[in-house]
Amino acid sequence: MMTAGLALGPHTLPNRLFVAPMAGVTDRPFRRLCKRLGAGYAVSEMITSRPELQASLKTARRANHDGEPGPIAVQIAGTDPAMMAEAARHNIDRGAQIIDINMGCPAKKVCNRWAGSALMQDEALAAAIIEAVVAACEPHGVPVTLKMRTGWCDAVRNAPRLARIAEDAGVCMLVIHGRTRAQGYGGVAEHDTTAFVKTLVRIPVVANGDLDGAAAVRRVLAHTGADAVMIGRAAQGRPWLFRDILHELRTGRPAPPPSTAELRDWLREHLLDHYALYGEAAGVRSARKHLLWYLRALGGPLAAQQRLRAAVIAAARAEQQLQALEAFLDERDAAPPGAAVALAEAEAVLAA
C-alpha cells in the first residue's frame, strides 16, 4: 500500500511516504534531496501570512521552489482568515500547487500569536480560516490540506471535531501529529486519535509522530488504518531513510547501507544546493546543523568525527566544509571493520 500512488486533487503522489514540514530544515535543497531518495511528497517550511513579512529574505527563501519537482506544497500559518486567504493566493501566484494550513506548530513564538496549534483552542476561528483558504484556492484548482495535533493538551483532544470541520469545508487531506501541543516533541506519540479520526472522515488521513523506520511505519499503519505516513525529525541527517523504508516495505528485507560513493553524491548535491540558496556566508552557517546531523547518522572512527565536527564549525567558506566532509568520508571508508564507535559514546565525546 505505501508504495502505491495517492490522489490529491489533480495530483497523483508516487507513494505514501511523506516529508513533514520543519522550520529551518525542510527548505528547497532538503526537500529536493528527500524526493530524490524516495519521498513521495514534501511540504515547505511554514510561511507567515503576515503581508509585511512576505517580502523578507527569510520568507523569500522559504518560498523558493526553483528546480523542485512537483507538486509544490506550501504551508501557511496565521490567525486572520482574510490574511490566510490572501497568503494562499500569493503563494499560488508564485508556484504553489497545494496549500497546507498549519495548525500543528507548538513553538511559543507562533502559539503566542494564536497561530499554529494554538488555533485548535478556537474551533470557530479555525473553521473560518479553513473556509477562507479553501475558497481562495478553489478557483485555481489548488487542493488544501491541514496539519494539526491531537489537541491542545491531554484534557482537550479535539482533533476529531476539527477533522470533521475541515472535511466539511473542503480540505482534501489531514495530517495528524500524534502529540498534543503541551507535549511539544517530548514523550511518546499516540496514534489512537489518528485511528479514530480515520473512522470519521472519507478524505485521506496521514499519521505523523515517532516514525523512524519500516517497522514503525508498519505498526502505525496497522494501528491507525492511515492512508499515508509523514516523517519529520528521523530524516534529519538521514534523508535516505525514505529509500530504506520503501526498500524494506517492497522486499521484506532491510536496505543495504548507502555506499561511500552514494553518500558523496547525495551530501555534495545537498550542500551545493544549500549554498546556492543562502549564499556562501549564510549557507556555511546554516549548513552546520545538517552536517552535524549527517555526522551523527554516519558514525565512523571517533577521531575522524571529532575532526569533521571542528572543521564544520570553524569553516568560513563553503569549500572548507566540502573538503572536510570529503576527508571524513575517505577516513570512514578506509577504517577497518569495527572502528566506528557506538553512537552514544561518540555523542558524549563530541559534545564535550
Q: How does this structure look, described?
A:
The protein is globular, with a radius of gyration of 20 Å. The strands form two sheets. Strands 3-4-5-6-7-8-9-10 form an eight-stranded parallel β-barrel, surrounded by six helices. It is built from 14 helices and ten strands. It is an alpha/beta fold and 352 residues long. The protein has helices at 28-36, 57-62, 81-93, 108-111, 123-137, 159-169, 192-200, 214-224, 241-251, 260-278, 280-298, 302-314, 318-334, 343-351, and strands at residues 6-8, 11-13, 17-19, 41-48, 73-77, 98-103, 144-151, 173-180, 205-208, 228-231.
Keywords summarizing the entry:
10 strands, disordered C terminus, eight-stranded parallel barrel, 14 helices, alpha/beta, two-stranded antiparallel ribbon, 352 residues, globular
Enumerate how many helices there are, as a single number: 14
- What portion of the residues fall into strands of 2 or more residues? 5-15%
Biggest sheet: strands, sense, closure?
8 strands, parallel, barrel
Which structural class should the secondary elements be placed in? alpha/beta
Gyration radius, in Å: 20 Å
Count of strand segments? 10
**End-to-end distance:** 45 Å
Helix content: 40-55%
Give the helices and strands, then pairings.
Layout: E1 6-8, E2 11-13, E3 17-19, H1 28-36, E4 41-48, H2 57-62, E5 73-77, H3 81-93, E6 98-103, H4 108-111, H5 123-137, E7 144-151, H6 159-169, E8 173-180, H7 192-200, E9 205-208, H8 214-224, E10 228-231, H9 241-251, H10 260-278, H11 280-298, H12 302-314, H13 318-334, H14 343-351
Parallel strand pairs: 3-4, 3-10, 4-5, 5-6, 6-7, 7-8, 8-9, 9-10
Antiparallel strand pairs: 1-2
